[in-house]
Design brief:
mainly alpha, 2 helices
Length: about 55
Amino acid sequence: MASLNEAQQRIASALLLLRFGVFIVMSPCVWPLVPVVKSSAATSGRSGPWFLAPRG
């Protein structure tokens, strides 16, 4: 079995992550939770929406 070089490992990892990401987004169990999380953050007080904001 030939070992993969670094570039091939990165490509394989990226493809695997893309596959899992598509699977998670397409999962029917995720979409019903989006309104629940958004409404609970919006009604939880002044700092609620800050928990949904992306941090960088």
